[in-house]
Amino acid sequence: MVNYREIFEEQGLDYTTYREMVDRLLAEGKTTGPDNTEAMLHYSKMNVQRMSRVDKTANLTDELILTIERLKGNYKLLVITEGWCGDAAQIISVFNKIAVASAGKLDLKFVLRDQNLSLIDAHLTNGGRAIPVLLVLDETGNEVLLSWAPRPQILQHLLKEWKQETSEMTVIAEKLHGWYAKDKTQTTQSEMNELFKKLG
Fold it and tell me: Which of 6, 57, 64, 193 maximizes the CB count within 10 A of its CB?
């Protein structure tokens, strides 16, 4: 049984603290998680640039802002992520912007997947530990009301197609990040809008 409130309160990092942790680890020649190979360090460095770009360039749509403003209750947002994850780098800045726009209705925290295997194993995507995972908890942090993972649906389908065409991960990663660059967070925001509308 996963204790969501305990994980949120004891391990959860706010967005700034999470970003600072990733930067600090990179300065020490490490990334989050147990794999500190050159490849993983490279991914983490690229992801810092991606997160910074989304921080600077993405603006929430009027529709999403309105949905967030209309929220009647308060909720906790728990995000399972890792510094080396390319999808997370393109998405978690949007979660942060949503929390900021909520004027205190949404309390956002980040936890690391590989330090919380029982948590991620309760929220697998097609049997895999795909991240990021967004969990919308009730105000007490005890109950999961909604969840979303690990990327927009259309991209999930495209990724499946790309993996059938090639097993070369660098080619797939290039297509993935090319898609995100063209989309400019719009599809992620659209899905977030539909998700938060369910809270009424």
Answer: 64
